[in-house]
Design goal:
The chain is an alpha/beta fold. The protein is about 30% helix and about 25% strand. It contains 12 helices and 25 strands. The chain has helices at about 55-65, 80-85, 85-90, 105-110, 195-210, 215-225, 245-255, 270-285, 300-310, 325-340, 360-370, 390-400, and strands at about 10, 15, 20, 25, 30-35, 35-40, 45, 70-75, 95-100, 120, 125-130, 135-140, 150, 155-160, 170, 180-185, 230-235, 260-265, 290-295, 310-315, 320, 325, 345-350, 370-375, 380. The strands form 7 sheets. A 6-stranded mixed sheet has the order 1-6-7-8-9-10, covered by helices on one side. Strands 18, 19, 20, 23, 24 and 25 form a 6-stranded parallel sheet that branches. A 5-stranded mixed sheet has the order 11-12-13-14-17, with helices on one face. Helix 5 (about 195-210) packs across helix 9, helix 6 (about 215-225) packs antiparallel against helix 7 (about 245-255) and helix 8 packs across helix 12.
């Protein structure tokens, strides 16, 4: 379905071929690149799509426009998955006026060699398409310095760029109301759209936007004074039914508020730290504690970041390696620190052969991040055994027993 309203048309595409996003993040359910047309006396195209979909994208636009032209191209965000086809749009409709803000101007020049026929807007500026008014709000560092959003006043519609977006291609429709979009591959007809995308939204947020909680909060505050009945993001469904849930969830994520539960991460060279991690998982299971467990040696770190943002407690397991933290765990903890995660409880465990350092160093990293240490940690020599490392003690600390 491409017709969202009489004046708003969806012209985006699904990508079911790409397996890694940004060269780092897995796409088991694909991803969508969303672009929209607003049609009145004049027409405005909001963002473009990834370069590989040029023909399909132009076909989508022409199907909606017929013989009309694109009068304005609005660039909310210059990341290439949304701006790759700016030059193609200019080539196809040479008179198109590109609407952007001042920080976008050098990026347009650098990526596309475009510096003319620009309409540069400031925060709160508007353009008229006839009976339709588009107003622009700058949202810097959500999650690039030039990001902005576009608000269609008469239809209370927010074209939000990457904000409120999610991994996962679209199936069954475009919006969460008409067409009832589902996460690609989801077959549970009873599950609503937001529920089916929630984990992939959290993974998208934690992987890409996670560092920018403070600026997301500033953007939410700025937009709190306008009525939003529809959110048109550049990835994932158009939110109509679920607007309050989606905005509330973004608010929660950007406040770094975790649910009760434990994210266990570990890496192991010869299986001893792995056995300790699994023993802790078994102890939590006995107590009915919700948890997720991730092997950082075999699994993309994307999923561990997702669950750090889900739960209020992080437990990290690492052997001592060269008198330091084992690199997969070190890199993970660096990523947690880089995302400015806060409001977490923390504990560490790990093995060593002749000198233990990993638990102490993990605790130091956690304290530096402002985490609450719930234990001094459990460090054990050589092979794991319950006698050397009783994980029930750590489970007691986690549950407050």
């Amino acid at each position: 379905m491409s017709k969202l309203t009489e004046k708003i048309r969806y012209v985006g595409v699904n990508d079911l071929k790409k397996v890694i996003f940004e060269g780092m993040w897995p796409l088991p359910f694909g991803v969508s690149y969303n672009s929209y047309l607003v049609m009145d006396e004049k027409t405005a195209l909001v963002d473009t799509v990834e370069a590989d979909f040029a023909k399909e994208y132009l076909d989508n636009i022409r199907r909606e426009l017929g013989d009309r032209k694109v009068d304005y191209l609005i660039v909310n965000h210059m990341e290439p998955d949304h701006s790759s086809l700016v030059a193609l749009v200019r080539e196809t409709w040479p008179d198109v006026r590109i609407v952007c803000n001042a920080k976008t101007v050098p990026m347009l020049k650098g990526y596309h060699g475009i510096s003319d026929n620009l309409h540069v807007v400031k925060d709160g500026d508007s353009i008229s398409l006839g009976e339709s008014t588009l107003t622009f709000y700058l949202t810097p560092m959500v999650h690039w310095p030039e990001t902005m959003v576009t608000y269609f006043n008469e239809e209370s519609t927010l074209f939000s760029g990457d904000a409120f977006g999610t991994f996962g291609a679209l199936q069954g429709g475009v919006s969460d109301s008409a067409g009832a979009a589902r996460l690609y591959g989801c077959t549970d007809a009873a599950e609503n759209t937001f529920a089916s995308y929630r984990d992939e939204m959290r993974r998208y947020y934690s992987n890409i936007v996670g560092k920018f909680g403070q600026t997301v909060q500033a953007a939410l505050k700025k937009l709190s004074g306008i009525r939003i009945s529809r959110i048109c993001s550049t990835h994932g469904p158009v939110w109509e039914v679920s607007v309050p849930e989606v905005v509330g969830y973004y608010d929660k994520l950007s406040r770094y508020e975790g649910d009760k539960g434990v994210c266990i991460v570990y890496a192991s060279m010869y299986g001893n730290t792995a056995r300790a991690a699994k023993a802790l998982a078994a102890e939590l299971d006995k107590r009915g504690v919700e948890y997720a467990i991730h092997n950082l040696c075999t699994e993309n770190v994307s999923y561990a970041y997702r669950d750090v943002f889900k739960y209020d407690t992080l437990v990290a397991g690492s052997p001592t390696y060269n008198n330091d933290i084992f690199p997969p765990v070190m890199n993970f903890m660096y990523g947690v620190s880089a995302r400015l995660v806060k409001n977490r409880r923390f504990a560490a465990f790990g093995s060593f052969t002749w000198a233990g350092a990993s638990v102490r160093l993990l605790n130091e990293m956690a304290v530096k991040n402002g985490f609450e240490l719930i234990s001094d940690g459990l460090s054990f020599p050589q092979a794991y055994s319950p006698a050397k490392c009783d994980m029930s003690l750590l489970a007691d600390k986690i549950t407050g027993c």
